[in-house]
Amino acid sequence: MKKGVIGAFQLGTLSGLKCAIEIAAKVTKEEGYNVEAIFYASAFQAGLEQFVIPQISDNEIQDSEFILKRTKIIAKERSEKIYKSTNDSLSQFLPDNWQKNDEYASVWGLQSFFCELFIAMEEKSSLVTIAGWPNIEELEPLLPSEVIVPFSNFTSSVEEIFVQAPIPRYALEREYANRYQDIFFGDLFSDYSEAQSVLDDASVSYEKSIPNVIEKGKNIFKSNPAVLQVRKGLVGIVNVTPKLVDAAFGKLPGALAEMAGKLGVNYLEDRRRIVIYDFHNTMLELLFNNLVRMINTAEQKKMNNK
What is the rounded CA–CA span in Å between residue 249 and residue 226? Predict the structure, then answer.
């Protein structure tokens, strides 16, 4: 089963986008799109059959029965253990209460990235990001080389690939749920999800896997052109090698080195890759287009009423 981890930081980013649309709706008196529903619809692009998310009290995806059935909740104790280990390892280089200081916002993103990456590796799952990658240039003035160098070694190992893949034209809301369920539970999506899963397999060259992903995606689109569209998506692929385990995972500070090192060795033994689906630009484009539409519609109504 193709799984994707969506961490608390990503869910928070999604919530922030939703708030921006809600504020714009109050100002323009125009209804905004359901950003959360559109994100989960976009995740269709990754061939995900299951979302893996942390146990948090304000998780709103449970409003969708369709999504809830495809969601695995990570026990709070488990994610908190990883969070504590990451927090303790970074805090030795930072001032007290850095977690509440906006000056260290970029470090919050790095901490969350580490947590979500390690959870994804424990789950043998892909990682899904909405907030994008932590910015090294912003981190360098705030953290020592003990953190920057291994993180830089990791990011330099990521090979970014743009893949044309199908996504729903509409959000995963009630009126479209039945139509998408037919697609999700059909043979064509199973074939597509399996093709995406091969990207995780380090024994198969991803250069050979990508054309199959594109072909299986086209098959789904051709069978459902009324409800699907084809869009370019960004995929980050990391080949886990002994050098990477040593230079990136093994050089992290504190308990992070032991945790990441063990996970890296497990990936070597299982011959797995780390696969990261980046929806940052997709969601920013959605937000911008939505705001422009709402503002233009409101302005047009004002002109018509004059």
Answer: 45
Q: Which residue has the tokens 């098959």?
A: 219
Per the CB < 8 A criterion, the answer to whether 247 and 150 are in contact is: yes
Closest CA to 244 of 154, 145, 113, 151: 154
Residue 139 · residue 230 · CB < 8 Å? no
* pLDDT over threshold 90, residue 227: no
Per-residue pLDDT at 78: 87
Please say if the pLDDT value at position 57 is more than 70.
no
For residue 276, how far is the Cα from the chain centroid?
7
Express each pLDDT in 117-136 by its tens digit. 999 999 999 999 999 899 99
| Tokens (6 digits) for 195 | 């093709």
| E strand map for the chain | 3-5, 50-54, 71-74, 126-129, 158-168, 228-239, 273-278
Give the predicted TM-score (pTM) of the model: 0.89
CA distance 117 to 17: 22
- The pairs formed by 75-84 with CB atoms below 8 angstroms and a separation of 24 or more are 78/119, 79/8, 79/54, 79/55, 79/115, 79/119, 82/115, 82/118, 82/119, 82/259, 83/111, 83/115
* 72, β-bridge pairs: 52
Residues 6+ apart with CB under 8 A from 262: none
Q: What is the mean pLDDT of residues 267-273?
A: 94
What b/e string do you get for 30-58 counting C-beta neighbours within 10 Å, with b at 16 or more?
bebbbbbbbbbbbbbbbbbbebbbbeeee
Place of tokens 């069978």: 223
